[in-house]
UniProtKB/TrEMBL annotation:
The keyword Coiled coil applies. Residues 470-481 have a biased composition (Polar residues). Residues 38-65, 224-262 form a coiled coil. Keywords: Coiled coil, Microtubule. GO terms for cellular component: cytoplasm; microtubule; spindle. It comes from the Eukaryota. The lineage of its organism: Eukaryota, Viridiplantae, Streptophyta, Embryophyta, Tracheophyta. It comes from Panicum virgatum. GO terms for biological process: microtubule cytoskeleton organization. This is 65-kDa microtubule-associated protein 8. Belongs to the MAP65/ASE1 family. One of its GO terms (molecular function) is microtubule binding. PANTHER family: 65-KDA MICROTUBULE-ASSOCIATED PROTEIN 8, PROTEIN REGULATOR OF CYTOKINESIS 1 PRC1-RELATED.
Length: 481
């Protein structure tokens, strides 16, 4: 109440109508006019003073709370600013004042722009981390063969440039590995396509058996085919196709080799060999040589195999005919020997002993067969030389190989054999016309003539360029007949 009493002033003093003193003075005038009791007046003034104190207290408390909030906001801003500096890996910020001065509001206003700038930097840095880590996670999922990607969590406590560079380096390593795996996948696909074309297989089916996504085009789905499982399956498929290609090549080489031998044995014409000329070239191609599409298809191999079977059957039939022919000749020789032994006479054929003629004829056939074999070998050698030296002149055929056979055909024994094909008769001297001594003399002359013909032919064969050992072997093999 003291404060209210002190506000009382002289009646002549002018007071503003809105002031507390003016209001108290007006209230006193009303009490005087009414005749208010003094105790009642003091009670009312005491209540007014308490109410004023409560209002002031509320105002003070409100001001104090505002000050506390400013202190707290300033402390939080400073703490957040410090944490941002630490998380971003920066030691200081040029926009922040080194020493805080002024009122709390002034200090808070001075740090707020720097704090907002640091928050923007953090958001940008978090975005960079998110992009890099998301890309790393995506590539890792593709390599692991997972279809979905896991949620990426960025560590807010370490957003430094050093950490970001580490993630970027890891991302570059992952990208290189992804690129290498994509190259491997493309290499495997090219190999599978080439193997499929060479062996007549469908490359699309081969790739679909590995993984259906391998048939996708050059889009985003194609980049997901880089897992370890797909690479392993592709490698296994390539190895299987490579082994199958080698097996088919080896089988084709063996078939072509057998086919060539049958051609040479059966003296097959060039017209019959023409359809299989390309296959013969494929057979002599190196293992790593390039092969055209359809070179090793099952149809091609079956075609060569069928031809080999046909020629084998033809060879067997001809060998059977030759065997029957030789058997008939042997039977004829046996009959002739038996006839001579039974009758104690010599069997003459065009005035020559038949056994000597047959021996000479068989020797001549043997020489002809050897001559044909040498001519085939010489032809093979000439063919190989022409292929190796395409720009050189063709080798002149060696005519020396034909001399032994010509000599053999020009020998007296061969002349007698050819003449024997024109006329055939058996000359038997009757016992009534010739005596035993004369018949023996005549037989000796015939045998001597046959032996001279055989010896003359053998000497002509020995003087030729042919191998002496082979000739002697032939003579030894035929002499015991």
């Amino acid at each position: 109440m003291g404060s209210l009493k002190m506000t009382e002033k002289a009646p002549g003093a002018a007071l503003p109508e809105s002031s507390c003193a003016y209001l108290l003075q007006e209230l006193k005038m009303i009490w005087d006019e009414v005749g208010q009791d003094q105790s009642e007046r003091e009670r009312i003034l005491e209540e007014l003073e308490q109410e004023c104190q409560e209002v002031y207290r509320r105002k003070v408390n409100s001001a104090n709370m505002s000050r506390i909030q400013l202190h707290q906001a300033l402390a939080e801003s400073e703490a957040e600013f410090t944490n941002l500096l630490l998380s971003l890996g920066e030691r200081s910020f040029p926009g922040r004042p080194e020493k805080m001065a002024g009122t709390l509001k002034e200090q808070l206003n001075s740090i707020t722009p720097a704090l907002q700038e640091m928050q923007m930097r953090k958001e940008a840095r978090v975005k960079q981390f998110m992009e890099v880590q998301t890309e790393i996670q995506r590539i890792a999922s593709e390599i692991a063969g997972r279809l979905g990607t896991e949620t990426v969590t960025v560590n807010d406590e370490d957003l430094s440039l050093k950490k970001l560079e580490e993630f970027q380096s890891e991302l570059q390593i992952m990208k290189r590995e992804k690129s290498d795996r994509l190259c491997k996948v493309e290499e495997y696909k090219v190999l599978i396509q080439n193997f499929g074309k060479v062996m007549g297989m469908d490359p699309s089916k081969l790739l679909a058996n590995v993984h259906p996504r391998l048939l996708d085009g050059p889009n985003e789905q194609q980049t997901k085919n880089i897992s370890d499982e797909i690479l392993k399956k592709l490698n296994m498929t390539v190895q299987q196709l490579k082994e199958e290609k080698n097996n088919r090549r080896e089988k084709l080489q063996n078939l072509v080799k057998a086919l060539t031998n049958l051609w040479d044995t059966l003296d097959t014409t060039m017209e019959e060999r023409q359809p299989y000329g390309q296959m013969k070239i494929l057979a002599i191609t190196s293992v790593n040589g390039m092969l055209g599409p359809g070179s090793l298809t099952l149809e091609t191999i079956q075609q060569v195999e069928s031809e080999v079977q046909r020629l084998n059957q033809l060879k067997a039939s001809k060998m059977k005919e030759l065997f029957l022919k030789k058997r008939a000749e042997v039977d004829e020789i046996c009959k002739t020997q038996f006839w001579e032994q039974e009758r104690n006479k010599i069997f003459y054929y065009d005035e020559l002993p038949l056994l000597a003629m047959l021996k000479d004829y068989m020797l001549t056939l043997k020489e002809k067969e050897e001559e044909k074999y040498r001519q085939r070998e010489n032809k093979k050698i000439q063919t190989l030389l022409v292929k190796r030296n395409e720009n050189t002149l063709m080798l002149r055929p060696n005519t020396s190989f034909s001399r032994p056979s010509s000599r053999a055909f020009n020998s007296p024994g061969s002349t007698s054999i050819r003449s024997s094909q024109v006329s055939a008769k058996v000359l038997l001297l009757p016992d009534s016309e010739n005596s035993p001594a004369e018949k023996d003399m005549h037989a000796k002359r015939i045998r001597n003539r046959a032996m001279q013909n055989a010896l003359g032919k053998n000497r002509s064969c020995s003087t030729s360029h042919e191998d002496k050992t082979s000739v002697s072997t032939v003579k030894q093999g035929l002499s015991p007949i």
